[in-house]
């Protein structure tokens, strides 16, 4: 699992090494700089959760570095090391915004305790923190921290399952609003006729079935942040209303007359090219510019390869903890297979693969075959035995090879727990197959496909996005027809 990274800035080599060793033994990841000047490029390139800096250094001193950090990286806390007897140093350290200071000489424990206090964690692991090992992701999270302190709207774009919501939550958690609500709403998952009332609230009797008044998501997010997930799926009429709410910073519930003032930061995500949507007249240009004050773009997982294994390890650790399983690790073959796979469904697909592998693994080690990536799950989809899709076939194959007692370690408990979801998985695969068949029949025309299936085009788009997350390459499926 990724560890919290601390940047140590100290010109005295021995003290620098002692600080770094002490914190590394305590479970932190340390990077060091021998001057404030050389700390700056490190801050620009890496994700750093805390800076521990000496005050007295030749050139730029600790206070000046602190000021620089406050200006350029306001989300990063800094601790200063002051000299014994220079109490004025300690006072000015606090005045210039240091979150804490320690006085030389100090015991290793004093350092560790202060660091723990500052990081607000008893445990130095970064549980719950997003994984960012690839240089691209590190820079993105660095940028997120910078934008977090402002109140500007942020539009996060990226393929489905890349981590857009994770990034949005991170922005909120790094912002001054972090102790206020974070409300996320998936615009694609809510029926069109309900979305307005859910966003803006409604008064009793506003529509059939509105037996009580209820606040909307904007009201619930007041003081905090609202995340409008898959914003491209909002219909044009509602887009106009949303624009008004954002501009006027007030909302009126459906069927209500009272205006309610809002102090809400708006974040939005999209997995479509919104500019294209604007050009096609499907998305309002004024709303697009309102929401894209600060645009951020996730790369697909395959284009940030250094994230793959650490992410898989994090997801694996989370599932193991949830299911109270003994430690289970990834072997080299699994890591290699993961790095070579293209992950069309991005991190969500990786999560699915890890969960599958947990069921199939033997001896508490996950190897490449347990991941079921060999045939690139989606690629032959629909061309196998009727009604028997590749994931199911793989499950059956793997279950056949389970030789009773030898694989009892975890697998049987898991199977029991996962039995229902395997059944659900099978139904889902059948639904996917029906959609693919109809898309082929209609030569990929989504409107006609949706009509024939008796679902709305929006529901079809939503289901197609879920299919991509499951690793189904819809373009390949269509061209193979
Ligand atoms: N950097 C990360 N660190 C830890 N977990 C991550 C990271 N990125 C993604 N995940 C995990 O991957 C899954 C998908 O992430 P998320 O929901 O943020 O993607 P998304 O791009 O918003 O997807 P969609 O477009 O479908 O809404 C989640 O379970 C999330 O916890």
UniProtKB/TrEMBL annotation:
It holds the Pfam family HTH_8. The keyword DNA-binding applies. The modification 4-aspartylphosphate is found at residue 54. PROSITE patterns: RESPONSE_REGULATORY, SIGMA54_INTERACT_1, SIGMA54_INTERACT_2, SIGMA54_INTERACT_3, SIGMA54_INTERACT_4. Residues 130-359 form the Sigma-54 factor interaction domain. SMART domains: AAA, REC. Residues 5-119 form the Response regulatory domain. InterPro entries: AAA+_ATPase (IPR003593), AAA_lid_NorR (IPR058031), CheY-like_superfamily (IPR011006), Homeodomain-like_sf (IPR009057), HTH_Fis (IPR002197), P-loop_NTPase (IPR027417), Sig_transdc_resp-reg_receiver (IPR001789), Sigma_54_int (IPR002078). The keyword DNA damage does not apply. Keywords: ATP-binding, DNA-binding, Nucleotide-binding, Phosphoprotein, Transcription, Transcription regulation. This is Sigma-54 dependent transcriptional regulator. It comes from Alkalimarinus alittae.
């Amino acid at each position: 699992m990724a560890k919290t990274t601390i940047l140590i800035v100290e010109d005295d080599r021995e003290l620098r090494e002692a600080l770094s060793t002490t914190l590394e033994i305590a479970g932190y990841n340390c990077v060091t700089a021998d001057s404030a000047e050389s700390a700056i490029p490190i801050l620009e390139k890496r994700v750093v959760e805390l800076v521990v800096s000496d005050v007295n250094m030749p050139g730029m001193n600790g206070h000046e570095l602190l000021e620089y950090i406050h200006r350029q990286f306001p989300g990063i806390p800094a601790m200063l090391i002051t000299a014994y007897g220079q109490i004025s140093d300690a006072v000015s350290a606090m005045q210039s915004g240091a979150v804490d200071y320690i006085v030389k000489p100090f015991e290793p424990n004093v350092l560790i305790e202060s660091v723990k206090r500052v990081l607000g964690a008893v445990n130095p692991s970064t549980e719950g923190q997003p994984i960012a090992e690839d240089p691209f992701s590190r820079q993105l999270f660095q940028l997120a921290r910078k934008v977090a302190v402002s109140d500007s709207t942020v539009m996060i774009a990226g393929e489905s399952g890349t981590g857009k919501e994770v990034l949005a939550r991170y922005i909120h958690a790094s912002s001054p609003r972090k102790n206020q609500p974070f409300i996320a709403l998936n615009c694609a998952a809510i029926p069109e006729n309900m979305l307005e009332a859910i966003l803006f609230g409604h008064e009793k009797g506003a529509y059939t079935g509105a037996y009580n008044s209820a606040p909307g998501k904007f009201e619930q997010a007041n003081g905090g942040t609202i995340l409008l997930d898959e914003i491209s799926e909002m219909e044009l009429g509602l887009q106009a209303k949303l624009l008004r709410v954002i501009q006027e910073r007030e909302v009126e519930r459906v069927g209500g007359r009272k205006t309610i003032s809002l102090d809400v930061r708006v974040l939005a995500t999209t997995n479509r090219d919104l500019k294209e949507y604007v050009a096609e007249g499907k998305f309002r240009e004024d709303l697009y510019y309102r929401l894209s004050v600060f645009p951020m773009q996730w790369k697909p997982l395959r284009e940030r390869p250094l994230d793959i294994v650490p992410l898989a390890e994090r997801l694996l650790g989370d599932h193991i903890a949830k299911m109270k399983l003994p430690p289970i690790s990834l072997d080299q073959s699994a890591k290699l297979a993961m790095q070579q796979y293209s992950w069309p469904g991005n991190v969500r697909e990786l999560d699915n693969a890890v969960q599958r592998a947990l069921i199939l693994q033997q001896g508490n080690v996950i190897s490449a075959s347990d991941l079921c990536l060999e045939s690139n799950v989606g690629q032959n989809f629909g061309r196998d035995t009727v009604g028997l899709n590749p994931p199911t076939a793989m499950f059956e194959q793997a279950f056949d090879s389970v030789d009773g007692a030898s694989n009892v370690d975890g697998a049987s408990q898991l199977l029991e727990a996962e039995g229902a979801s395997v059944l659900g998985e099978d139904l889902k695969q059948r639904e996917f197959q029906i959609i693919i068949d109809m898309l082929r029949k209609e030569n990929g025309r989504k409107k006609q496909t949706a009509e024939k299936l008796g679902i709305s085009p929006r529901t079809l788009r939503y289901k197609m996005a879920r299919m991509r997350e499951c690793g189904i390459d819809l373009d390949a499926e269509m061209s193979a027809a």
